[in-house]
TrEMBL record:
The lineage of its organism: Eukaryota, Viridiplantae, Streptophyta, Embryophyta, Tracheophyta. Pfam families: Indigoidine_A. GO terms for cellular component: peroxisome. SUPFAM superfamilies: Indigoidine synthase A-like. Gene3D superfamilies: Indigoidine synthase domain (3.40.1790.10). It comes from Glycine soja. Keywords: Glycosidase, Hydrolase, Lyase, Manganese, Metal-binding. This is Pseudouridine-5'-phosphate glycosidase isoform C. It is an enzyme of class 4 (lyase). Its EC number is 4.2.1.70. InterPro entries: Indigdn_synthA-like, PsuG. HAMAP family: PsiMP_glycosidase. It comes from the Eukaryota.
Amino acid sequence: MAFSAVWRLANLGRHLDLSESVNKAAPVGSIKLKVASEVSEALSLGRAVVALESTIISHGMPYPQNLETAKEVERIVRENGAVPATIAILDGTPCVGLSVEELERLAILGTRAQKTARRDIAHVVACGGNGATTVSATMLFASMVHIPVFVTGGIGGVHRHSEQTMDISSDLTELGRTPVTVVCAGVKSILDIPRTLEYLETLGVCVAAYKTNEFPAFFTESSGCKVSCRVDTPEDCASLIEASIKLKLGTGILIAVPIPQEHSTSGHIIESAIQKAIKEAREKNITGNAETPFLLARVNDLTGGASLAANIALVKNNALVGAKVAVALAQLRENCQRS
Ligand SMILES: O=c1[nH]cc([C@@H]2O[C@H](COP(=O)(O)O)[C@@H](O)[C@H]2O)c(=O)[nH]1
């Protein structure tokens, strides 16, 4: 690493005071956080904004479906009254809100963009690299600019055999330390779902299921695990989020939305492909942050594309719900200010 990059890395903590950057694409010391004008304007006016991650674009889906889905998700968020803010690091600059050209760039880069969790942020910025942010890094940047609601497909979790590998996604620890609400379809059964929920409980994270009492398992509506909090409307979600913020709990919230019923029929076929892919990953010794992308790609091959179609459908559904939640939250805050 060049001296200047090392210097920038060492000074990152001091210079990345992003509290002022909400209203402008602000140079802060030597580090810039670029907030799209549409996003900063909405935030300053108290309008609904929905953060979106970018690993799902680079590593979660192949080109060109990744680009089509990213654009479609942004369109759904807009149609439902909120401003989309896809988050990524481009040429070393953390960006909150991407242009169509930037989305295209990221989609074409695919896995050549670095999968960037919280631990990778300083390195990607210091090297001037291109980072696709995972749930943990996206939550962090969203909270820096005060975006309370974030939509994705699924989050990472506790991996199977974690008692041997210690492989637990940093998405969970981020949920335990960053006050952002993540709307997702639960976690895939490539992970250990009961342990994921146990770990979230340990971290003090509220896990709410949308219109159900059970935690969904991404491709299927149910995991067999009950949750302690049920929400039935966007307004329920908004009240939950506002209470958590007002109590200054400091933790995130997970709102788990089951895959729409019409898309869950292939769930059981996908489940058996998941079991096969997990076995292959073990045989090939694929672990760490390479495991999730390997499993996703292999499951898609084994199901002849059915898992990708289901994945796209549930992300779009989450975008719809997440946008409504963000709008309900903005409305709730406006009503509180008036009274
Ligand atoms: O169904 C999915 N789960 C998870 C991911 C991505 O993988 C990350 C978790 O990776 P890991 O397990 O290495 O922490 C998530 O934050 C998200 O960006 C994804 O694309 N699709």
